[in-house]
Design a protein that fits this description.
The complex is a heterodimer of chains A (296) and B (287). By secondary structure, chain A is mostly helical. Chain A is built from 15 helices and no strands. Chain A folds into two domains: 57 residues, no CATH class; 233 residues, MetI-like (MetI-like fold), CATH 1.10.3720.10. In chain A, helix 4 packs parallel to helix 10 and helix 4 crosses helix 12. The two termini of chain A are 42 Å apart. Chain B folds into two domains: 42 residues, no CATH class; 234 residues, MetI-like fold (Orthogonal Bundle). Chain B starts with 12 loop residues before the first helix and ends in an 8-residue tail after the last helix. Classes of the chains: A mainly alpha (296), B mainly alpha (287). Chain A: It is a multi-pass membrane protein.
Chain lengths: 296, 287
Amino acid sequence: MTSRQHSVPQSSGAPFGGRLFGSRSKRVLPGFALSLGISLFFVSLVLLLPISGLVMETSGMGWARFWQVITDPRVIESYKVTLWTALAASLFNGAFGLLLAWVLVRYEFPGKRLVDAMVDLPFALPTAVAGITLAGLFSQNGWYGQWLAQLGIDVAFTPLGIVVAMSFTSIPFVVRTVQPVLEDMAPEDEEAAITLGATDLRVFRQVVFPAIWPALVTGIALSFTRSLGEFGAIIFIAGNMPYVSEVTSLMIFIRLQEFDYAAASAIASVVLLVSLVLLFSINLWQARFLRRLAGR
Amino acid sequence: MRRAQHNRIGDQPWVKWLLVGLTLTLAVLLLLVPLVMIFAQAFSAGVAGYIENLSDSITLHAIGLTLLVAALTVPLNLVFGTALAWAVTRFNFPGRKLLITLIDIPFAVSPVVAGLLYLVLYGNNGWVGSWLSDYDVQLMFAWPGIVMVTVFVTCPFVARELIPLMQQQGSEEEEAAVVLGASGWRLFRKITLPNIKWALIYGVVLTNARAVGEFGAVSVVSGNIRGETNTLPLHVELLYQDYNIVGAFASASLLAGIAVLTLAVKGVVEWHQSRETVETPSDRTGA
């Protein structure tokens, strides 16, 4: 923080210097060079350098070998397991998150503040702790597992366990994206529709849902992205059987433990590419949606 | 008149209590019970057993290493997050939006991939690592590597808390202070800092929670050497795999305690922010 002091004479004395960069107004404030300098240095060193290191590593291995590694049958099976479990988990969270957001915004009830605070628990709780806890709860003689076993449902050591772990770790996303939109909804449209005699379900479908679905989609997409990369919570409950309950991030981990860095990097580059595409799509989608809201 | 007290959907008591009941059931089953179970397991051998589990030398070392990692990571990311938020909310420059998207990368990237990125670059056969090993500098499978990946994983938190708030607050107050002749540092301390104080505190607490709890990325670069490069989450895994379930949950309870504290701080921060909103309606609401 003390380095900030350093910049003072140079930048506060140069309100005109900013024009050199050719952008609009706002250059009255000091600290442009310092804050942007720190940011760019940090982003380059911490984020971009390691990513380009991965690109270098994989480009050294040749296309044929790269293709062979990323299409290995066991790896392909891990993509499939990861994709369908992440999809199931994020859809569950779409429903549960919408319910939570609705109840927290619309109703008063005892324990409301506690529930609101607890929603963020999965973000605050380390994934390994979540993993051993869920594994304990859902194991054959665990608090939940023994009841589910009587119904003939096995969760621990099956792909269903992966869904449970992914759902848990990404619960907050949908709630926290939908909640502010529900809070900001003006009651007039809803009141008008009710006065005109529409049923509640119809009002929800035709008035409320059109207002919240972009936020809902964003929340589900964030939840899906997070689930694709989840590792800590999953490995304790999944059983990690090849071809059955092995997720892709575990596949990378296994290749690393075999000291096959090239293969691990190849699979990681596929995962990284998918996450970056998802991240950029979500950001573009949000920007479009926000502009539309502002335009109204 | 029949509709007098029913002017928003879902207000009928049976709908309300059905939805609230369903929510409470799911919240208890999916959130509260897991939290309770951690402490129930941790104390299942009694308080004495709990203390004994936590006071063996390997556990104490793991706690110490975890605190060291957090103590180095949090200040770095505090400076970075604040600088980035200042740059992107107070100035316009080409590539500003790209920069905002780039800092979300750690949120999107799998922790295992994050660890691998560093291992490939700084490991002994890596591009930078092979050069460093000529000078006998070993970053991977040692504590510096753990700090490096933790910085990667936690770098968005402070910036993500500050950016929406600083955007909403605008820079009129700060511009006025500059016109009145305030210097940069004084401006930041007297005007900006009081305005962003609560968001900054929550950002730090979140960074800390994630720094002490990171598992995937750290397990890739740590080498899991007991009593040397084992952080608390890795220690939890080791104990669990040794079938020392009570010991694993005892260590896990420390991490769960930090998580609960994090949620409590969030509650306090939101309470302060909503109070400030009441005083000056132009400010943003909590969340």
